Amino acid sequence: MNGSGLHAVAAERVFDGTALRERTAVIVDDARIADVVPTVELPRTIPVHALPAGAWLAPGFVDLQVNGGGDVLFNDQPSVQSIRTIAAAHRRRGTTSFLPTLISDSGEKMRRALEAVNAAVGSEPSVLGLHLEGPYLSGERPGVHDKRQLRPPSPDELAMLTAPRRGVLMVTLAPEVVPPGLIAKLVAAGIRVSLGHSMATYAQTRAAMAEGLIGFTHLFNAMRPLASREPGPIALALESPQAWYGLIVDGVHVDPAMLRLALRGLGHPMLVSDAMPPVGGSHSHFTFYGKNIAARDGCCVTEDGTLAGTVLDMATAVKNCVRLLGVALPDALRFASAHPATFLGLGQTLGKLAPGYRADLVAFDPTDITVLATWIAGKKDN
To answer: Are 176 and 314 members of one domain?
Structure first.
């Protein structure tokens, strides 16, 4: 990536995370935003990168669920190098920060993932922390997760999770398979806890939220469905102003009508990719848990047709949000940046273009959300 220093990026339209501005420039000083001003007010001494006519500039996308990219699956290679490969694949598609995501695996693999992320945080600015999707999940809603890896947490694993760390830790679990009080312990340790792959009842979900759970991982997918006499976790997510729910907007995982319903809820929607190795890679097939998985028809599936993540990137998720759900582009951009940043507790440094925020920017063509360039901590991606 190119060096930073004092410079500006100017565009005909700049969405700053709150409002849409005309003919505006973002002044970047090293890794931070110094100011956001009308282009005519830019000092002549500041070098300016002027975007093409019609292009938009917005906060870089924040992805909470990235299983892989660039032909790398994080479960296969939980290392700093694999994180860098995945980061490079996704930043070309507008994702300037993300959580590498480990799908349910052994305690040893969890330890290696934590160590890799601890080492990467700081040296790889796009890495915000780690998302452990499991292994404390329901065997009734495993999705592509290996049932042999699903289990309740052990004392050793709890100690590993709550130990001092660098970056954010997000844990997806099924509340009904963990003991009472465990969610509160995780939250007390600064962990973002999210419900997923769960058959929790409405009452069990309420109890989990009372302990501090506020997230819902890929809402609708791999969880108890809405029903007339057992509304389950989906109803509670939609009626809770403190809830934050990830949405996979690929046109396959969830019907657009259901996604539009989620957008009318009181909770806060967040776009996620749930991306697998083919995103930004050259291969359409990969293996996971010994299963052959193919990327086709806009998703990843096993040989028996089970959904196994996506070939989605965040720029495409934003585009789908507009085209499939009828969402205004500024709102879709907010779902991809400010909302996930706030959920992670990073809303004062990421997700907006404002003085003091990290200079994470994405430039794109608004007609099809083609990414033109990204800047991470003030440095432009080559």
So the answer is: yes
